[in-house]
Specification:
The complex is a heterodimer of chains A (91) and B (387). Chain A has 91 residues and is of the alpha+beta class. Chain A contains four helices and three strands, in the order H-E-H-H-E-E-H. The chains are: A alpha+beta (91), B alpha/beta (387). The interface between A and B is large, with 31 and 44 residues.
Chain lengths: 91, 387
């Protein structure tokens, strides 16, 4: 962070994990009942699945996202800490 | 009065100071006999309607999403409006009170729909938060903020520095603005805390010092300058430990800064903490640093004053109006690591002086910052537009 940092950069300039976190929030994956599959997330974010898997795993490791295991397909949603991290951008 | 309040955050959806402000204000308005209906957004685990200490809380669920934040804001305002539309059939509101730009669309819609006045509280501005307008979204948010101040019948800000900022930036006439400071519920801070146990829980041993920093981890809070001051502080006080409480988008960057100081083993990031835990920590700390570079008010300084921890704060914005230098706390220069290190060293090196500062701070707090006073002043503003 330099002296002349921008607090809210363009989406393309945001680190991909933060960008993904923001997108997951804004498209509504904020509770287990609203969890999304990796295919649904890929459609919204236009990210390739392998890249997306890596970022989602990192978000899970950091405590910002949660994996919901299901017999059909795994789904993902934000934790409360993940939601707070996103909202901190705009408050 | 029948008051309709709009805010994108309300407990347990706590992001910054707006949620606590709305809660404190609404509770005091209820105690003064007003009827408060508060419209906000949903949050995991919270009901769509509940009464909290008499406040009727309506949480709108956003059924549509969009990756772009601004589009999402427009969408959630639609769902807020829907919730309000249902209620305005049943309740004849006297005034709508909107907090910040995020809920402005709904507020402006209802001002025109129900033909009732709208009061806007500007808690901060985009140009201040972002230290400039660096992206198309920032320009749009800035435009929405201007639009909301234009549409509002009156505008409330929490400090004279904010009044000056919005007068200059939005060309708003001074006479349209009321300054009403924030407040805290000081009874919340008068609790018994086992300092030793709390310090031990956070790895602060006997004879060690605890320096606390509380706030959202975003650049405007200036936490990076505090972290960079730690090597200097550690030279004079090798026994000091540093706890940084809060969550935010720049946490990863700040954790990297902490590693770069060579003192990472003494610096702990706790993430978001409950109100009770913040009080525990403040009561147990030897100094509270508020290193903000932009701060419309600075409620964390009031919280520190209430718990009796010596406050070292940047002389910016509202902080400059809360603290009297060398009387109720210490000022340091913003973005200045030498100055921050000086302030903390002064507190740690002279405990008698630090105690004297906290005694003065508590006296000032009780006289000047209560929710009852804020609620009365706010209702006076409502009366100006209703009559």
């Amino acid at each position: 962070m330099g002296e002349n940092h921008s607090f809210r950069t363009q989406p393309d300039e945001q680190p991909n994990q933060l960008r993904l976190l923001i997108m997951l929030h804004n498209i509504g994956a904020t509770e287990s009942t609203k969890a999304l599959t990796i295919d649904q997330i890929a459609e919204w974010t236009r990210m390739e699945t392998p890249e997306l898997q890596g970022h989602l795993q990192k978000l899970i490791d950091l405590g910002y996202a949660q994996l919901l295991r299901s017999e059909e397909k795994d789904k993902f949603y934000l934790t409360i800490n993940g939601i707070r991290k996103v909202l901190s951008l705009y408050s | 009065m029948k008051i309709g309040t709009l805010s994108w955050e309300f407990p347990p959806r706590v992001v910054g100071g707006i949620a606590r402000h709305c809660e404190g204000l609404a509770k005091a308005q209820i105690q003064q006999g007003h009827d408060v209906h508060l419209f906000t957004l949903d949050f995991p685990g919270s009901p769509s309607y509940e009464e909290m200490d008499g406040i009727k809380v309506y949480r709108a669920s956003t059924e549509l999403g969009h990756p772009n934040f601004l589009t999402w804001v427009l969408l959630f305002n639609h769902f807020l409006s829907k919730r309000m539309a249902d209620l305005t059939q049943l309740v004849d509101f006297d005034v709508m009170h909107v907090h910040d730009w995020l809920a402005a669309f709904s507020g402006i819609t209802f001002k025109h729909y129900i033909k009732k006045p709208m009061v806007l509280t500007v808690h901060s501005t985009e140009v201040g938060r972002a230290q400039g307008l660096h992206s198309p979204d920032s320009f749009s948010i800035n435009g929405i903020e201007w639009w909301a101040t234009y549409e509002a019948d009156r505008v409330i800000v929490c400090s004279h520095s904010m009044k000056e900022e919005i007068c200059n930036h939005f060309n708003l006439p001074e006479k349209k603005i009321d300054v009403i400071p924030n407040a805290i519920d000081s009874s919340k801070y008068q609790i018994s805390v086992d300092r030793g146990a709390i310090r031990q829980r956070y790895g602060v041993g006997w004879g060690e010092k605890l320096i606390l920093c509380v706030g959202r981890l975003v650049p405007q809070k200036g936490v990076e300058y505090f972290i960079r001051a730690i090597p200097q502080i550690a030279q004079r006080h090798p026994e000091a430990k540093y706890i940084i409480v809060g969550e935010g988008w720049s946490r990863d960057i700040l954790e990297a800064e902490a590693k770069a100081t060579g003192h990472a083993d003494k610096i702990r990031f706790t993430g978001f903490a409950s109100d009770r835990e913040v009080i525990n920590l403040m009561t147990s700390a030897d100094a509270l640093i508020v290193p903000s570079i932009y701060e419309p008010f600075g409620i964390v300084a009031l919280e520190g004053m209430a718990t009796g921890v010596p406050v070292v704060a940047s002389k910016v914005g509202g902080l400059a109006e809360i603290i009297d230098h060398e009387k109720t706390g210490l000022f340091v220069y913003p973005r200045n690591i030498d100055s921050i290190a000086w302030g903390i060293d002064k507190i740690l090196s002279d405990p008698d002086h630090a105690r004297w500062l906290t005694k003065n701070a508590k006296e000032k707090l009780h006289k000047a910052y209560s929710w009852e006073a804020v609620a009365m002043k706010t209702v006076e503003v409502y009366r100006k537009v209703v009559e």
